């Protein structure tokens, strides 16, 4: 059965810079994903609640305020607390390389910085969820 | 290192970056209806297209005002002294996110954000430290603050009084442009109606008590950064300005009293001539509207006095040294466009707040423009250029199309509630991204002339976690030392005035002087005014 992937695009914390998040949300939607955009000023609790309510496959956090080393781990911790292990946590914004490495070690997915092509993000998600490129969703469950 | 050649065929050369179609050359026939006295005029004379002062930069070079702030008030105080020592001529305060949202540094929601994007200011004590050793009667200060502008301004006023500075000589600007917050920058607090009341109270207070203060910096910068075109920036910003004029008049203020203290803030983006045309069109449109539509009588009311910042969104993380060049050219456009004040970005700002070295280069960029290149010696040197006059006319024409659309929606406030400017901006941002990805727009280092396996070797400013801890400690000490009964009394009085029609600046100032914190004062106001919530859309 064809199932569109559901992606939650979220703006956590106080950061109000949403140009990138909106462009990514739209690009993902145009590429065939179901996209839910949280809007601004989300707490980790709000994000996880929405993710579960909306039954998403992935959460993309957009953080340009420098608060990523606090927010990403908090969201991850909450997901683990709720025993949710199959939602991909990825994102982007202004995240220095060394912080990217540190977050990757915690189990956070790819983080996309300034200058990223939206097709890169789309390809990453398709590859991660093993989607065949002509739009069919194939589950590779055993 | 492998480098590919720029494919000339896909470089867009028949439209401005905003999409205005342009010919290969402009001729006298393209501006044959131009009437010098009607459309241009002398600088300092209506309609001010060529500049707002009759001597412009020969009389006074633009203010070199670098937007700046990080960490604690002590950290930022040090940076201000550095910049002033190296020749900057005005101060500009960047606040951290908690402060922008009216939250104290120790509010749970502030965790991880304190001092990261600007300086943490939670109380009058922090403001006093920020200006320690800086004579507030000698320097003008611009503060980028919107939702809590009334409170932060009160901190500034009270800090100046502590330096024994008379309010009549206090010079500066608070951004205080709530309409563009709803449209683009998103650092609002209260819903539109109480926000407008606060703004008109600020205008009334300034007229009486702080007459040299600019009460609003009506901004296009953020609208442009959010992805708008140059025309949208021009149109939405001016329409915001005209809306404030209408609100001020509605509140019973004399337009000739408050209009001269409105100022503007524009972006200086990459398309060189489009930007210059935009600045010139802005002056002409505002002058015409204030004189003819709103019947302002004083020439000071007809002026667009503006600050410019070079476009942050055009900077790249890749090959960051190129940003020095981008900034220099954008700074040049602002100068040729007649700006009164200028901030030039630092090359490392896609990565972090500027290091000392990077901000010094940015400041030197302005000084080079001012003292070495000669571009400041003649007023409006591009005046009379067939292309620039054509483009100025075109920008004005396109802006009025947007004015009509917004008027049909019932004005700017209704248009914002409708989501109109927000949608226009999001669409423009998306179209721009598509153009970049399809290589119809080149960004060097990003989609062309890329350095494979580039290693960025540049020191980055890091904000220590100790900043948050220090702020926590300061607040604990503050709350112990102050008279908490007085604080509570003043907060109660503030809430009382908030529910009345009296000027809210007076009780805010009283509360500030008892060392009530930003968070406490904003919370009191939120309880009366409510909180704005934006419907998420993309």
Q: What does this entry look like structurally?
A:
- The complex is a heterodimer of chains A (142) and B (538).
- Chain A has 142 residues and is α/β, with parallel strands linked by helices.
- Chain A has helices at 19-30, 44-53, 68-81, 97-105, 118-128; strands at 6-10, 34-37, 58-63, 88-93, 111-112.
- Chain A has a five-stranded parallel beta sheet with strand order 2-1-3-4-5, with helices on both faces.
- In chain A, helix 1 (19-30) crosses helix 5 (118-128) and helix 2 crosses helix 3 (68-81).
- Chain A is globular.
- Chain B is α/β, with parallel strands linked by helices and 538 residues long.
- Chain B has one domain: Alpha-Beta Barrel (TIM Barrel).
- Chain B has helices at residues 36-40, 56-59, 73-85, 97-100, 124-130, 149-162, 178-185, 192-209, 221-225, 230-250, 255-258, 272-293, 322-336, 356-371, 386-408, 412-418, 420-437, 466-481, 484-498, 505-513, 518-529; strands spanning 63-68, 90-94, 141-144, 172-174, 213-214, 216-219, 262-268, 306-310, 341-343.
- Chain B has a nine-stranded parallel beta sheet with strand order 5-4-3-2-1-9-8-7-6.
- In chain B, helix 6 (149-162) crosses helix 20 and helix 12 crosses helix 15.
- Chain B is globular.
Write the topology of this structure.
The complex is a heterodimer of chains A (142) and B (538).
Chain A: E1 6-10, H1 19-30, E2 34-37, H2 44-53, E3 58-63, H3 68-81, E4 88-93, H4 97-105, E5 111-112, H5 118-128
Chain B: H1 36-40, H2 56-59, E1 63-68, H3 73-85, E2 90-94, H4 97-100, H5 124-130, E3 141-144, H6 149-162, E4 172-174, H7 178-185, H8 192-209, E5 213-214, E6 216-219, H9 221-225, H10 230-250, H11 255-258, E7 262-268, H12 272-293, E8 306-310, H13 322-336, E9 341-343, H14 356-371, H15 386-408, H16 412-418, H17 420-437, H18 466-481, H19 484-498, H20 505-513, H21 518-529
Parallel strand pairs in B: 1-2, 1-9, 2-3, 3-4, 4-5, 6-7, 7-8, 8-9
């Amino acid at each position: 059965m064809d199932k569109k992937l559901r992606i939650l695009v979220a703006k956590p914390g106080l950061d109000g810079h949403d140009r990138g998040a909106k462009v990514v949300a739209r690009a993902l939607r145009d590429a065939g994903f179901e996209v839910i955009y949280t809007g601004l000023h989300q707490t980790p609790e709000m994000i996880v609640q929405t993710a579960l309510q909306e039954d998403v496959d992935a959460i993309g956090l957009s953080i340009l305020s420098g608060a990523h080393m606090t927010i990403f781990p908090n969201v991850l911790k909450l997901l683990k607390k709720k025993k949710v292990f199959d939602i991909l946590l990825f994102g982007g914004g202004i995240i220095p390389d060394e912080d990217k490495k540190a977050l990757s070690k915690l189990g956070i997915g790819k983080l996309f910085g300034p200058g990223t092509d939206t097709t890169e993000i789309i390809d990453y998600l398709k590859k991660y969820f093993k989607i065949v490129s002509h739009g069919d969703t194939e589950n590779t469950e055993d | 290192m492998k480098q590919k050649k720029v494919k000339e065929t896909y470089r867009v050369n028949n439209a401005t970056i905003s999409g205005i179609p342009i010919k290969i050359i402009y001729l006298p026939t393209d501006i044959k209806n131009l009437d010098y006295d009607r459309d241009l005029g002398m600088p300092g004379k209506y309609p001010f297209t060529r500049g707002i002062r009759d001597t412009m930069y020969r009389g006074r070079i633009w203010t070199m005002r670098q937007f700046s702030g990080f960490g604690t008030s002590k950290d930022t105080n040090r940076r201000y002294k550095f910049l002033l020592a190296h020749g900057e001529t005005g101060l500009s305060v960047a606040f951290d996110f908690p402060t922008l949202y009216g939250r104290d540094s120790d509010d749970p929601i502030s965790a991880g954000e304190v001092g990261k994007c600007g300086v943490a200011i939670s109380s009058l004590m922090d403001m006093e430290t920020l200006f320690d050793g800086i004579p507030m009667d000698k320097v003008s200060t611009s503060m980028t603050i919107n939702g809590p502008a009334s409170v932060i301004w009160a901190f500034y006023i009270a800090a100046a009084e502590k330096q024994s500075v008379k309010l009549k000589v206090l010079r500066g600007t608070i951004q205080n442009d709530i309409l563009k917050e709803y449209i683009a920058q998103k650092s609002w607090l209260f819903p539109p109606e109480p926000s407008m009341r606060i703004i008109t109270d600020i205008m009334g207070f300034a007229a009486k008590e702080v007459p040299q203060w600019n009460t609003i910096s009506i901004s296009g910068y953020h609208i442009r950064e959010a992805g708008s075109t140059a025309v949208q920036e021009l149109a939405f910003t001016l329409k915001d300005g005209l809306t404030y004029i209408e609100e001020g008049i509605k509140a019973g203020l004399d337009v000739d009293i408050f209009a001269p203290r409105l100022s503007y803030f524009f972006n200086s983006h990459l398309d060189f001539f489009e930007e210059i045309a935009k600045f010139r069109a802005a002056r002409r449109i505002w002058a015409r509207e204030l004189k003819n539509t709103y019947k302002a009588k004083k020439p000071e009311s007809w002026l667009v006095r503006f600050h410019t910042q070079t476009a942050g969104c055009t900077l790249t993380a890749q090959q960051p040294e190129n940003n020095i060049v981008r900034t220099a050219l954008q700074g040049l456009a602002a100068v040729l466009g007649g700006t009164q004040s200028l901030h030039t970005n630092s090359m490392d700002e896609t990565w972090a707040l500027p290091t000392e070295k990077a901000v010094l280069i940015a400041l030197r960029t302005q000084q080079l423009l001012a003292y070495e290149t000669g571009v400041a010696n003649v007023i409006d040197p591009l005046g009379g250029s067939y292309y620039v006059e054509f483009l100025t006319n075109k920008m004005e024409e396109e802006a009025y199309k947007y004015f009509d659309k917004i008027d049909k929606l019932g004005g700017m406030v209704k248009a914002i509630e409708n989501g109109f400017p927000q949608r226009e901006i999001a669409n423009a941002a998306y179209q721009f991204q598509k153009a970049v990805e399809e290589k119809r727009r080149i960004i060097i280092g990003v989609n062309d002339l890329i350095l494979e396996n580039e290693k960025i070797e540049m020191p980055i400013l890091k904000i220590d976690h100790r900043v948050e801890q220090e702020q926590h400690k300061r607040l604990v000490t503050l709350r112990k030392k102050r008279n908490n009964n007085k604080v509570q009394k003043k907060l109660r009085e503030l809430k009382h005035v908030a529910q009345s029609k009296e000027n809210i600046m007076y009780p805010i100032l009283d509360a500030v002087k008892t060392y009530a914190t930003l968070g406490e004062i904003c919370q009191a106001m939120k309880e009366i005014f409510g909180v704005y919530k934006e419907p998420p859309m993309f």
